[in-house]
Amino acid sequence: MSKTPSRKLFQLIHALSSSEKRYFKIFANKSTSENDNKYLLLFNAIEEQTDYDEAQLKELLYPGEQIESRKFSEMKAYLYDLILKSLHSYDEKNFVEFQLNNHLKSIQVLFKRSLYEDCKMILQKAKKLAFKYEYFLHVMRLLSWEKKLAYTESNVDYLNKNLERINQEERDCLMKIQNESSYWEMFFEFLIAGKRDAVLRSNERITRYKKLIEQPLLSQEDSALSHRSRILFYRIHSVGAHATGEWDEFYKYNKTLFDIMGQRKNVLKEDPSEYISVVSNLILSCGLLRKYNEVGDFLEVLKGIPTVSLDDEFKIFTQYYLNKLAFCTELGDFKEGVKAIEACERDKKKFKSIIFLSNYYFQYSYIYFGVGDYDNALHWINELLNLPKSIAREDLQSVARLLNLMVHFEMGNEQLLDHLLRSIYRFLKKRERLFQVERSMLNFFRESRKCVTRKQFSELCQTQKEEMKRLARNPAEMSFFRYFNFLAWLDSKIENKDFGQAIKDRLSNSAA
Questions:
Q1: Are 403 and 362 in contact (CB under 8 A)?
Q2: Fewer CB within 10 A of the end CB, N or C, for the chain?
Q3: pLDDT tens digits, residue range 80-106?
Q4: Which pLDDT value is given to residue 285?
Q5: What is the mean predicted confidence (pLDDT) over 32-47?
Q6: Tens digits of per-residue pLDDT, 104-113?
Q7: Phi-psi region of 406 (alpha: psi -120 to 50; beta: other; left: phi over 0)
């Protein structure tokens, strides 16, 4: 038996959901004898560990004994395989695709034993299920079996009556498979472009992005030939609207997706991961359009989505807190944001890692900056800036450096400011990201060094505020203001008031 790396077994056990762990323990009791209870003992011991400790496990399983490494390695390998077998069994009971695969296996088993009528009975049941859930590749295999059974039985009459129908079903399936494949190809093309240039701040890039939307399959919904293709149709438009800053369209497409997906409870139950993303995007779009009541409503919807795996729970956790934290910064409710950070830090202990770490670190820093806790703000912004390039999102890098500069400015670290200004300028120029907003803010901090009196600084802030208001109206620059409320921060300096209150006042004035 091959060796199983310790970390591999540890990660598998900790990747299981609570229901999967319960299922394994029942499965293991049925699959092993009483003499093999050491496998369950090992499973439970690893489940309890927060970090893998092999010496502790050996002592628990073989107290006071000299244990061979080979024997322990074989035990780990057996346990790993046993867990996989239990997961196969678990998924067969819970997921349609596994059920269809089993139906196909059963047809093959029965066919080898010439039990053709049994084959046909399972085939019809499987076809109905495959069509209902749009598993067209499975339909193609089932149609192939339908022809094979008729040919084996020399049932020419059946072929004569049904061949055209079978061929037409095959053509329809092929068309829908190709159609979905084309939408997936476009979706990934848009996704890559969106991640590469998450904040499009030049008219040329926005124009290029809009040209991608002009592809024939994206012109009308009727071009999508299946439920999955229809979802991809709207998701692509959603990605495009987000990338080009068309927030009304971004909201409209995600609201449509929310309604479409909610109508197909059977598909949603099979795989809720796409639905989680849609609800998260809907929350984001509501925030961008200041539909704050809807933000709170959809945050609750997100928390209440039924999950089928630990991965789904993980996605809901990350998306809920990312949106919750962003909601707090948007409203200037930084004290509530600190509470959300504390809750996030408690809840994340259930998971071993967090995706989108750069987003978390930025939001953490922004919130602590908002309550005037500059030590914590500096800690978290440094965590972001120290992330490997492959992890830290490029679109956050420039605004994170500006926030870092602002933290040091608030802390009165004047000797560092000149160095930071030069460093940020080099970074932005090297990455070809020195746009008007960055250039303007860097000039502002340079000029602030020359201010001697409070009045001079206030006048500089007023001038900068007018400049930033002008830039905020520029489509190529406006998305930059999503990440940080520079205008409210300048208000707080001009009017000598709390940053959070300045945000609330701006929201109140814009609503009036």
A1: yes
A2: C
A3: 999 999 998 888 887 899 999 999 999
A4: 94
A5: 79
A6: 999 999 999 9
A7: alpha
290 within domain boundaries: no
> In this structure, are 405 and 454 located in the same domain?
no
Assess whether 90 and 10 both reside in one domain.
yes
Residue finishing a domain among 427, 447, 476: 427
Domain shared by 18 and 70, yes or no? yes
CA 198/CA 200 separation, integer angstroms: 6
95-to-23, 123, 376 alpha-carbon distances in Å: 15, 18, 45
Task: Phi first, then psi: give them for residue 218, nearest 5 degrees.
Answer: -100, 5
Q: Are residues 26 and 66 both part of a single domain?
A: yes
Q: With 50 as the cut, is the pLDDT of residue 390 above it?
A: yes
CB 3 within 8 A of CB 68: no
Domain limit, last residue, from 46, 70, 94: 94
Rounded to whole angstroms, how far apart are CA atoms 24 and 60? 21
- pTM (predicted TM-score): 0.76
Count of structural domains within the chain: 3
* Backbone angles phi and psi of 508, in degrees to 5: -65, -40
d(CA 174, CA 136): 8
* Cβ contact 492:498 at 8 Å: yes
Instruction: Report residue 12 CA to chain centroid gap.
Output: 21
The answer to whether the CB of 295 falls within 8 A of the CB of 327 is yes
Cα–Cα dist 247/243, whole Å: 10
Exposed / middle / buried, residue 2 (Cβ in 10 Å: 0-12, 13-18, 19+) = exposed
Note whether 388 and 363 are same-domain residues. yes
Structure tokens at 75: 């035990």
416 and 467 housed in the same domain: no
DSSP string, 334-346: HHHHHHHHHHHHH
Please report whether residue 238 resides in a domain. Answer: no
